[in-house]
Amino acid sequence: MSRRQCIPWLALLCVSLLAVLPALVSAHMINIPASTKECFFEDLHEHDQMTVTYQVGEGGHLDIDFWLTDPEGDVLTKHVRHSTGSTSITAEKDGRYEYCFSNQMSTMADKQVSFNVHGIIYVSEDDDIVAPVEREIRSLAIGLLAVKDEQEYIVVRERRHRDTAESTNDRVKWWSVLQAVVLFSVVAWQVYYLKSFFEVKRII
User: At what angle are helices 132-198 and 3-24 packed, to 10 degrees?
Assistant: First the structure.
């Protein structure tokens, strides 16, 4: 294939990739108040695949409860007090699949949770053969989703480590201030004691 023939195919590939990506992934960041939960749902057909990944960025002990149920309400996945997690399912029936993030175990601390939802629509073997360009688009889309997930995980982890470092620095600072106050107090008491010890007392 000549270079002139390749350019239209590359342009078509880029345009198609941009069109496909929004349908494959949705990213969210939510704040869950104490003693509450947030639930979402996806309508799937039989053999469709769905993956949910999440990370707790702020709040409390950085833990959250998570569960995913099928259209009949049966629990397919459940995580208790996890700070990060991922679950993948293949739909066995048509219907609405619901997943929830619960902060009901906490009475005071709000939690900030970022999560992604990936979906792969099932294509029957009896359908038309997928064109090479479309196959390449799907492969690139899956690769981009993996890179995007890793980037978001790194950002959340960096924020958590920065918060930990800042909290540690604050504790070290106030501990140093306390030590200085105690040291000056001890020195002042010693000076006063020694001064009073060597003081000459006159008896009239």
Answer: 60
Tokens standing for 20?
Answer: 């496909």
- State the alpha helices, DSSP H only, in 25-70: none
Rounded to whole angstroms, the Cα distance separating 18 from 52 reads 22
137 near 13, Cβ under 8 Å? Answer: yes
Cα–Cα distance, 148 to 114 (Å, whole number): 13
DSSP state of 43: E
Q: What is the pLDDT of residue 131?
A: 65
How far apart CA 24 and CA 141 sit, in angstroms, is 8
Who has greater pLDDT, 179 or 160? 179
Structure tokens at 165: 């470092």
pTM beyond 0.90, yes or no: no
